[in-house]
From TrEMBL:
Signal peptide: none
Domain of life: Bacteria
Species annotation: Litorisediminicola beolgyonensis
Residue ranges of domain Histidine kinase in the record: 41-264
Location of this fragment in the whole protein: 76 to 339 of 339
GO MF terms, alphabetically ordered: ATP binding
Name assigned to this protein: histidine kinase
Amino acid sequence: RQDTAFDVTLRAVGLEGVLVAFQDVTSVEQAVQMRRDFVANVSHELKTPLTSVLGFIETLKGPARDDAGARDRFLTIMEAEAGRMNRLVSDLLSLSRVEAEERMRPTDRLDLGEKVRSVLGGLQPLAEAAAVTLARDLPEAPVEIRGDTDQLRQVLVNLVENGIKYAGRGATVTVAIEPPAHRARLRAEGVLLSVADTGPGIDPRHLPRLTERFYRVDTHRSREQGGTGLGLAIVKHIVNRHRGRMRIVSEPGQGTRFEILLPV
Ligand code: ADP
């Protein structure tokens, strides 16, 4: 009933007292498109190893039937491909679980320093096999935070494993915690957890998309390293659930650092 230009126009065309509702469908359409892309990506990621396994089964049933050497080689490849499908399904389940829990406040009380020590201990054999040194820079005192124990472990495992996978032989991966007291100015902001490596770094143009599902800088290298392309997407959702913030600092030749600010 207010005399807006729109109202005047309506009256001019003989429509009065009409309620017109507009809905912006852009975001709905975007969500539908994202879902479609995700299903297409998952199908493709599963189909590639599956096609390879089926191909080797055919060969083993036919031409390579009596060739013991070929059989061993093919079985090894099939085992690796099945492992890849297994990792993908595990990561998809993790992703859907963390998405479902994103709005639920985590309630465990834990010592973040202790968590880092235990994850680094568990990944030591992997680091040794890749000739990567694991280091830590942690405060002596416990760093008490409220969070989800399993999910924070997963954040650490994903980031340190990435460091081991992508930094290359001879590199060092350092996990550090800066408690709020060390940064008096930022006291209110929380604990700063960082995972830094001395690897080749990442071109800045990739950084904004790095946490998207299935986004990889080098798909071939990621696959070769057993990557699913979901690790950082999982990390992002867990950080969101903890009301934290993540920043990726990297430059070619300067290594990569993932910084996570967790509220205390
Ligand atoms: P992936 O399973 O491929 O490792 P992630 O989501 O964990 O998937 O990482 C996405 C991509 O980010 C990787 O494929 C890799 O190209 C890049 N990346 C992640 N961590 C590092 C790192 N520490 N150094 C260099 N590149 C990295």
